Amino acid sequence: MIDKRVKDLNEAVSQIGDGAAVMIGGFGSSGIPYGLIDALVEQGARELTIISNNAGAGETGIARLLKEGQVAKVVCSYPRSPGSVWFERRYEQGEIELEVVPQGTLAERIRAAGAGLGGFLTKTSYGTLLAEGKETRLIDGVGYVLEKPLPADFSLLRAEAGDRWGNLRYHGTARNFNPVMAMAGKVTIAEVRHLSGEPLDPESVVTPGIFVQNVVEYGVRP
Amino acid sequence: MNSLTDQQLAARVAQDIPDGSYVNLGIGKPTHVSSHLPEGREVIYQSENGILGVGPTPAPGEEDVELIDASKRLITTAPGGSFFEQSDSFAMMRGGHIDIAVLGGYQVAQNGDLANWATLDEKFPPAVGGAMDLVVGVPTIFVMMRHTNKDGSPKLVNKCTYPLTGLGVVTRVYTDLVVLDITPDGFALVELLAGNSLEDVQSLTEARIHT
Fold first, then answer.
1. Residues of A whose CB is below 8 A from B123
2. Which of A117, B73, B134, B196 could covalently link to A112 via disulfide, CB atoms 3.0 to 4.6 Å apart?
3. Residue pair B65/B74 in contact by the 8 Å Cβ criterion
4. pLDDT digit string (tens) for A69-108?
5. Closest chain B CA to residue A96
6. Which residue on chain A is closest to B66 by alpha carbon?
C-alpha cells in the first residue's frame, strides 16, 4: 500500500548527505518549508548546494543554513533582499559560490529537469553577461540562449494540504516554485500544514503525488 | 530645478496605462503605480511570484502571510484574480501575454539598452529576479527612475557601463524631470516638467535629447 507519510521532520531530512544539491521552494517568506530547513540545520549536512529563488532573510530559513556554514553554493535569481545579512556576509567573505539565474530561466531549467528535457532555447539573457559561455542560436533572426536542465538530489517543499498519496494543494502565492521543484528532485519531501489519510479532491490537486516521495505534517505558519 | 517625488512620478506613469491592460510592476518605485491609476480603468496586475490580480494592501487584521507580491509586501487578491506556479508565471511574460512592464533602472542608453541588475562593485551581489525575462517578452517596457545618480552623474547615457539586462528593450523612460521615448534617433522628448528648461535637463543627461 502506498503511504508517503513520515512521522516527523527529522526523519524526513535524514537521507540528505554532505554535498547534496537541495532545491527549496518558496519566494520571499511565502511557501518556504521552514520546518524541514530547521530539521536540516539540526541534522547538520554540510557543503550543500542550495537552489532557491532567494537566499534567505533574517535568521530563519535559508539564512539559518548560511549562518551555520552548511552551504557551499547558492543558485538563485535574487539573493539580495531586505535582511539578507547572512547571505551578504558569506558572499563578501568569499565563503560561498553564487550562480545568478534569471527567474524565468531558473523555473524553466528546473521544469526541464523534471520533464526529461535536455534544455531549451530562450531569448532571456541573450547578449548579456549571463549568457557568456553558453551556446546561442538565431531562429528567424532572433537570438536565443541554450539553457540546460537543473536537477537536484532533494526538493524541500511547503504545501497547504497533502494526503498519504503525496498529492499537494497550496495556498495563495505560497505555490510559487513548489510545483515545479516537486518534479525536479530525485527525492521530493513536502511539509504540509494539513496532512490527511483521506484523499484530496482530485480536482483540487495542484501537484500530483507521483512527484512526491515523502510528506510530513507541520502545522506552524510563518 | 523642479522635480517629481516618487509618488508623483508613479502617478505620471499610471496615466499611460490603458484600460484593460495586463501589467507587471517591478519591485521598488514601480509598485506605487497601481495606487495612482485614474478612475474608471480596470487593469490586472501580475506579480511574478505567481498571482494575477494583485489587490491593495490588506486592512489591519486581514493580512495573509502567504499572500505577497514580488516586493514581498502583503497584498490582497483583486476580483478575477488567480494563482499559478513559476513556469506559468514566466510563460505569461516570455510568451508575450503581459502588455506592459514598469521597471526600475540603473542606466538606460539612447538605443534602449537597460541595465538594472548588477553594478561593477564586486562586494555588491548581483540580483536579477525576473527583469531579464520581462524585457524580452513584454512588448512595452516603461522604466521609471531618478534622472541622475545621488552624486549627480547621469543615468541616461550614450552606452551603458553596467552589465545589461536587455538590448534595445526600453520603450519609454520616466524620470523626475522628463518623459522620453526611445526612437531610432535616440531619446525623444515627450514631456518636460513645467518650470524647467530643456538646456538644464540636457546638462544632467549624457545622451542627446531630441526634440
1. 92
2. A117
3. yes
4. 999 999 999 998 889 999 999 999 999 999 999 999 999 9
5. B125
6. A30
